[in-house]
Structures are given as C-alpha cells and as structure tokens.
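Escalation from tier 1.

The customer reports that the assembly of two entities below gives different structure tokens on two consecutive runs. Tier 1 could not reproduce it. I'm attaching the input and our single run for tier 2 to review.
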Amino acid sequence: MSEFAENERRIVVAIDEGDESMYALSWCLKNIVFENSKDTLILLYVKPPAPLFPSFDAPEFVITAEAMAKIEKYSQEVADRVLETATRLCNNIPNVEMKVGQGDPRDVICEMTQKLGADMLVMGSHGYGTIKRAFLGSVSNYCAQNAKCPVLIVKKPK
Amino acid sequence: MSEFAENERRIVVAIDEGDESMYALSWCLKNIVFENSKDTLILLYVKPPAPLFPSFDAPEFVITAEAMAKIEKYSQEVADRVLETATRLCNNIPNVEMKVGQGDPRDVICEMTQKLGADMLVMGSHGYGTIKRAFLGSVSNYCAQNAKCPVLIVKKPK
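Tier 1 run:
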C-alpha cells in the first residue's frame, strides 16, 4: 500500500456556476483525491451577497421584501444546481461535505478555508466575469495570496 | 493498490534560494508526490539573467569579461547549492530530474513548464525580494495566470 493511503487531508474545492470550477474539481479528482482515499473533500459554494441597504427614504432604490425573497430564492436554486452537479462528479469519494457561504467570494473562500481546517484549497483560475475581474482582480489570485493553506489553481485548457 | 500508483505525472517544482521554495518542495513530497509513485519530479532552478549590453563606448557601464565570468561563476555556485539541497530532500523519489534555466523567472518558469510537458507546477508564494516584488508583482501570481498547467502555490506558515 502506498504512503498515499495513510493520508487524511481536508481538501476544499471552491466551486461556482462556471465550467472552469467544474474542470478544476474533475482535475482534482483525477490527480489529488483518489477513490480509496481517506481524504475529506469539501465542496464550497459562495452565494453572492444579499442586496444591501433597502431604503425606505429613496423610493427609486427600494428593494421590496418580495423582490429580495425572489433574489434569495433564485440564488439558492443556483447554489443547489451547482452543488448537485459537483456532488455527482464525486460519487466515488467516500467523504464529501458541502458548505455554502455568502458574500464576496474572495473573503468567504479564505475565511472558510481556514475555519474548515483545510490542508489545501483547489479552485479554477477565474470566478468572476471579465468585467468584474478587471475591477476586483481575480478571485484565485487573491486567494493564492491570502488563504492560509496551499492553493492549487487549475485552468481549463482552451 | 490505490488508483494513485497508476499515475505517471510530470510535476515541476520551481525552486530558488529562499526558504519558501524548499518548504513548497517538502510539502509537495508529503502531499503530492509519494515514495512509490511513478511520477517524475522535475526540479527547476532559474538563474538570474546575465548582465546585458557590456558596452565598449560608455566606460562607466563597462562590465569586463572577467567580471562577467565571476558573476556567472557565483550564479552557478548558487544554482548548484540550491539543487543539491533540493535533491537531498527528494532522496526517496525514484524519478527526479534537474533543470536550470536563465532569465526572468516568470517567463522562464512558464516556458519551461510547457516545454517539459508538466502536469502540474508547484512553487512557493514568493520568489522575488520585497522590493522587486513591489515592481514586478509576485512570480507565483504571474505563473498562476500564465502557466499552461495547474499551479500549486505553497506558502510557508509564519
């Protein structure tokens, strides 16, 4: 038996609705976490922040409770769909956990990775659309610099 | 036998004279490449670029052939020392190769990773000193964005 089988690592894979994160997960399942492993694979999905500051003074910016509930429902549906797809990919792994966070993915991923006691964080190289990335920088770059554990960034081949 | 033992991956570890890159190598040996593996571990060291443009017209900038030879000799000694330390860490790994490049580490690491057909690149999170990093950005960020294969960035815990 290889030394490998003795390992019990906690590996967090940050997933979102993009193809790149599913590719990163698949790559991780082929190269890092194996069928017979004792590793725990933690799928982490971060929902966008809830709409902020519903204002009763400025009617043009009011977000009604009903609208907020709809946004929240849609956001939960997206989360469920992403986690379902990801879980299907992991059906040979004995120890899979799912976590859902909410907020700026850069902060949430770094904080939860630490709270979850991760030995490694795996993620796709993007995680925002092109425009948001131009303003905020890439989520993976931020996490590579700020997460407390080693970070594996997987790009989807073009 | 786990699926792991079937793998024959080519894993490049970029090393330099810093503690962080040796930590990244050790972490990789505990978590990614195992004793009995068929993986090939490629240690890549990048020497700084040779002094450019020795000029015969501007005496204040002349770098004599003798000075260049000294710089080159020193740079080779550093490379040998780093590779020797790294090789000692890998004494349980059957397939270890060493490669030395020269130039800007950002470009050389990305180019050689591709030429060597790497399945993964492992590196410490730095690779320049503080001041150079402020101007050039971190080598690992650059490689995470530009290398063609997945990149694992390992930070040394403080």
